[in-house]
Amino acid sequence: MLKKIVLCLLAALLIGGCVSEKEAVMSKTQSLKDAYADYFLIGNIVSGVNMDDVHYTILTSHHNIATAENAMKPQYLQGTKGVFTFDEADAIVNKALSQGLKFHGHTLAWHQQSPAWMNEGVSRDEAVANLTIHAKTVVEHFKGKVVSWDVLNEAVVDNPPNAEDWKVSLRQSPWLTAIGADYVEIVFKAAREADPAVKLYYNDYNLDNSNKATAVYNMVKDINERNPDVNGRPLIDGIGMQGHYNAHTNPGSVEDSLQRFISLGVEVSITELDVQCGEGGKQTDAQMTAQGLTYAALFNVFKKYAEHIGRVTMWGIDDSSSWRKEACPTMFNDALNPKPAFFAALDPDKFIAENSGSVETKEVKQSVAVYGTPDLADTAAWSQAPAIPIDRYLMAWQGASGTAKVLWDENSLYVLVNVNNAEMNKANQNAHEHDSVEIFIDENNGKTPYYEKDDAQYRVNFDNEATFNPASAAEGFESWASVSGRTYTVSLKIPFRTITAKEGDVIGFDAQINGASAQGARQSVAIWNDLSGASYQDTSGLGVLKLMKP
Ligand code: 9MR
User: Fold this and answer.
1) For labelling, which of 141, 188, 255, 362 has a CA lying 20 to 30 Å from the CA of 414?
2) Taking the complete model, does pTM exceed 0.90, yes or no?
């Protein structure tokens, strides 16, 4: 009993809770940073909410490098022109250094969390001056304290259609609009000049998407070939793969991108790793195991390329302080006890040997459509149908989300989607970048890696403009839309193309919400089931809808 109490106290000190004897002993003797001492640095984030002793003990026990989750972003360091506010960031950095951690800087230029005065409604010259002064002042301020910087964050669009040309693949960000594509080089040069010793990174999400990886590869290659010797080395030192993943992520795609970036001769780091696998802040045992298997497979990939990897940083110490707490993406639970994901990262091969085959990792969501033929403008007609949440995020930004309800009759499916938190922007020339709703249908639920003739994608924006894939899916389609403040409602009549529907039929179905930024670029994608990002060409990840009669 005494031993148990001592272990409890020890555990409370180490990981902040009264955990089992086994967990306490493991966390004392096995730390992630020690397990990976010969491979790469292990990092995590620090923010106002996790500066307390308990979180900090986990931080220092398992990690040797920290990133500020928000405090070093442009908005916080220079919200007002010329007024630099370093107090919070300094406190975070100084505490970490005093505890023996290294520090990574995040981020000098980004399209989010940056004040409008920097790059909106100003001349090119003024924008260049604002960017350069910000980068130089901040880099100089932290000189000698941070080992590397995310100089530029998320500058490339998702799934670029013309990835060979990196300049046309740049996001329509305020920096691009104000300066042009050379803003990329300008900010890296300013950072190198301010601190020639610090490593300079380009950082982005969804780099397991091969099109996006191609654009980033081409950008870094071009810039480094044109700037091979800036203070003795190429301008860009590294590429940060953020790593906001989920249990559907294919570690093979992560490996492909890693290999390509490494072939450029740059360092690669995993900079914001988390793995979504839960709902409403809860995880089943099967989800915890599936999440662990994904962490294990990813760490095995990272180990394989360790020679070229600087660090692997997790984006969140525990689920309750994570930016995606609903999806339980971290290695520690709300009580700050290590989850299976922790043990998976600690010893991937052991975890895989003990758990593979034990769970179905690709869980498919199911819901029902209720029999009825509505008038599209009569939103009350869907009241009997269950709400399908559209709240799993595919990108690193959590914008518009909502719910769908579905009715059916023999000839058509009728989908009602309510969207919250939208900008109501349709300025972009690409329809998928408008605030819009997309419905994916797989009439025979064939779950094929390509579209068959029964598969189609329907998109309607908040202004009731529709687009189709394939174009022939437009036949007989009707839609209706209504806007109220930041919410809008869309209803769609989707004629069946290959079936006459009957009770009990099961079809592949998904509903997606594209969220535009105020500048007119897609910044957020929320979906019901399919986290692959490939629903427009591959039906294997769609959810399932059963057609029911009351
Ligand atoms: O985790 C961060 C969250 O607290 C902020 O509200 C959010 C908005 O800026 O940024 C989060 O961190 C982002 C990081 O800076 C860049 N990559 C995506 C991360 C998640 O959005």
Assistant:
1) 362
2) no
